[in-house]
Amino acid sequence: MNDFTLQSIAADLVPSNYLSIANNARVSRDKLVKVLLEKKKLPDHGWENGTIEYLIDGLALLDSNNFPSRCGVGEREARVVCELVRKRHYGFAHGIGRSGNLSEAQPKAAGSTIMANLTNCLVLDLLREMGIRSCKKALLVPLATGMSVMMVLTALKASRPDARYVLWSRIDQKSCFKSIVTAGLIPVVIDTVPVEERGDPMLGTNVQAFRDKVEELGAANVCCILSTTSCFAPRTCDQVAQLADLCRCKEIPHVVNNAYGLQSSYLTHQIEQAGRLGRVDAFVQSTDKNLLVPVGGAIIAGFDPAIIEQIAALYPGRASSSQSLDVLMTLLSLGKTGYQKLVAERKQLHQHLLEQLAVVAKQYGESVISGRNPISVALTLRSFGDNAPMIGSMLHRRGVSGCRVVTGRETKTIAGHTFGAWSSHSSDGEYVGTYLTASAALGVTREEIDTFAKKLQQVLKEQRVVEGENGELNNQIKEMTVV
């Protein structure tokens, strides 16, 4: 209701002093919305649910499918037959973008267009707050990270039609590799090399191998270099600044897979440095991992707005507005201080995970490996031998998810390319040996880490008992054979 409507309310419906108090609350909400739409910045403090829904409902009413006088005779009129579905989407049904451009306005959907553009502005503000201050443009796309990377590569391919190769710093994550193949490009895998960080044996970027491969193939034939920030220990963040410098010198595009790196100031600093000192055409990060929304979206951002617009113009047709709606409501509920609090808590809990695993490692004569990886931690399982793979499945049966055991002996073939020592991020699966990984990602709780450490100790203890029983049985068999 606006001021005119409220003023026209008859006195016999509600006393004027009561109406005045209620109107003051409405004015406060309107002021928050006005400031948000004018400044297009994240609010310092999160909004309460009523104010968020007040904004969302108001935007939805601007779409033609919600007009009281609607009369749709087209093939796409945002008709929704199930009321539950309509409520789930707050009345938004037109989607975003228009006929092949993800950022173009829709004549039937003013509210959806405002929502999508406002969300992109808030996401850009968040990227800058998290340390990528030189970032110029951000685009929220309704595709998960792998498909979003593919979309970026396809756009770069269009601008470099004679370039066929993507030089990729190996990280054993299937969707990243598949994104290269799906874009119609040829992946050239650059293996990682052993490095030492803070006394830990880690795997890092072979920058010299990138230089050599560029010389071998010719810079004009390289579509881009694809590097990674966030990764599973014992792999560490790529030397994105050095790769960016190489790309600047050789005039080669550079894409950074920042999948869940937005939650780490260390990783965002690497991107900021790379963008300032070298060349970074685009960097991509997941919405579910970094913003705690359902899977299905990613943020494509960069330091040159023209490149991001080129990517947006590549999108075929309209797109779902669900991801924009989820992200907008989440960012408004958190505000700057709310998100910063989550990030600070995550950093503390990463240290707590290290400490808990250090206790377990000491008890079983193993080592904790983290280096400068700000999210993931590895625990060696060298003393468990062939029984180590069972540890992962035993933890899974006890409700522990996200923990994986790597033996360095598995082989994986993806799109015709065979990777030895799959999951170890290196062809040398013996460098670290057998280990398990665990992460302190955004949203994890202290209780989850403590429960994981307790269950891990139980599983390792059970394995030790099994090993002892097997050893005793083997001794008995040997004695019987001798007799």
Q: What proportion of the residues is helical, as a percent range?
A: 40-55%
**Order of strands in the sheet with most strands:** 1-9-8-7-6-2-3
Structural class: alpha/beta
Number of strand elements: 15
Oligomer: single chain
Poorly predicted sequence stretches spanning 5 or more consecutive residues: 472-483
Biggest pleated-sheet summary = 7 strands, mixed
Indicate the mean pLDDT: 92
Cα radius of gyration in angstroms: 27 Å
Euclidean distance between termini CA atoms: 96 Å
Helix and strand string, N-terminal first? HHHHHEHEHEEEHEHEHEHEHHEEHEEEEH
Share of β-strand residues? 5-15%
* Tally of separate helices: 15
* Inertia-based shape: globular
Explain how this protein is built.
It is a single chain. With 483 residues, this protein is an alpha/beta fold. Strands 1-9-8-7-6-2-3 form a seven-stranded mixed beta sheet, with helices on both faces. Strand 7, helix 10 and strand 8 form a beta-alpha-beta unit. Helix 9 packs parallel to helix 10. The radius of gyration is 27 Å and the shape is globular. The termini are far apart. The C terminus is likely disordered.
